[in-house]
Design goal:
The structure is a single chain. It is globular and about 60 Å long. The chain is 61% helix and 5% strand. It starts with 21 loop residues before the first helix and ends with a helix. It contains 13 helices and 2 strands, in the order H-E-E-H-H-H-H-H-H-H-H-H-H-H-H. A two-stranded antiparallel ribbon has the order 1-2. The protein folds into 2 domains: 66 residues, no CATH class; 186 residues, Cytochrome p450 (Orthogonal Bundle), CATH 1.10.630.10. A hairpin with a 2-residue loop joins strand 1 and strand 2. The chain has 259 residues and is mostly helical. Bound molecules: protoporphyrin IX containing FE. The site of protoporphyrin IX containing FE has 10 residues, from helix 13.
Length: 259
């Protein structure tokens, strides 16, 4: 059943105070106000939602009404107008073309890549444990995830691109200086695309799927610049999120050894 939002939902009278833990603060408010509430967070009036009916309402039924915020515009400076940044009809068109790269069968086909990268890391850590040498979990996880992401995206071209993208693991700050080093890597992606086109090479990796994708209305493929933005987006979106999640998992396991 569709929920119709006809009035402003209540929420906490006091603004979010930066000294508090944001997640705990949000959880307390969910308990007090239910699955949707209005709040002031970092100086903006926001609606905080939880629950599939609101995801459906915002993302599927009324997506035309919602715009992405300032933070996303800053991401656009780094990644161009890929899925993270684009909006409205253009986003929908791109999303439809990219979706097949993430169908269940496509993900299943990546299992070997994921398993092999993890197996190599386990071996490294087991050796370190035997030799009583410490490991840098953050760095190791980041490198392993980057390998999985780049092989998934670039397939046989992995060895060509990998050394250039190492900056994502070796550099942890995400400031303007990082942006200056990262942005030009789009040219490298463009080169890989141009080489594949020149050699008439069709690949089953994610870049290959995106190069073959056609808009269902116009029958057109993605312009090269857009292709580069989408690939740069997938590199960052696929790497940082997964690496951070696994990093925290190891930290939490270290604090809860019985688990
Ligand atoms: C634990 C891992 C991950 C987490 C926690 C995560 C989280 C998220 C979240 C919260 C969003 C919504 C952002 C928004 O629109 O406000 C998102 C979108 C997105 N993620 Fe992930 N993600 C993960 C892994 C990945 C991976 C592995 C990839 C690709 C290889 C990826 C690619 C994307 C893309 C392209 C979008 C934009 C989708 C669109 O708007 O159409 N993510 N992710």
């Amino acid at each position: 059943m569709t929920t119709r939002l006809t009035q402003i939902p209540p929420g906490p009278a006091e603004k979010y105070d930066r000294s508090q833990n944001l997640l705990s603060w949000m959880m307390c408010n969910f308990k007090e106000f239910g699955d949707i509430y209005r709040a002031s967070i970092y100086g903006s009036d926001v609606y905080v939602v939880s629950g599939p009916q609101y995801a459906d309402y915002i993302l599927r039924e009324n997506w035309q009404n919602y715009k992405k915020g300032q933070a996303i515009k800053r991401i656009g400076l780094l990644l161009g107008n890929g899925l993270m940044v684009s909006e409205g009809k253009f986003w929908k068109k791109q999303r439809r073309m990219i979706q097949p790269a993430f169908h269940q069968e496509a993900i299943v086909a990546l299992t070997n890549v994921i398993t092999e990268a993890n197996a190599a890391l386990i071996e490294k850590w087991e050796r370190a444990a035997l030799e009583n040498v410490s490991v840098n979990i953050t760095l190791d996880i980041s490198q392993m995830v980057l390998e999985v992401v780049l092989i998934s995206l670039f397939g046989d071209d992995y060895t060509k691109v990998a050394p250039h993208f190492r900056i994502l693991s070796s550099e942890s700050t995400r400031d303007l200086q990082f942006a200056q080093s990262f942005r030009p890597l789009g040219n490298l992606v463009a080169q890989v695309v141009a080489n594949r086109r020149r050699e008439n090479r069709v690949s089953t990796d994610i870049l290959g799927v995106l190069m073959k994708a056609r808009d269902r209305e116009s029958g057109q493929g993605m312009p090269e610049r857009q292709l580069v933005s989408e690939i740069m987006t997938l590199i960052v979106a696929g790497h940082e999120t997964t690496a951070n999640t696994l990093d925290w998992i190891w930290y939490l396991l270290s604090q809860n050894a019985e688990v």
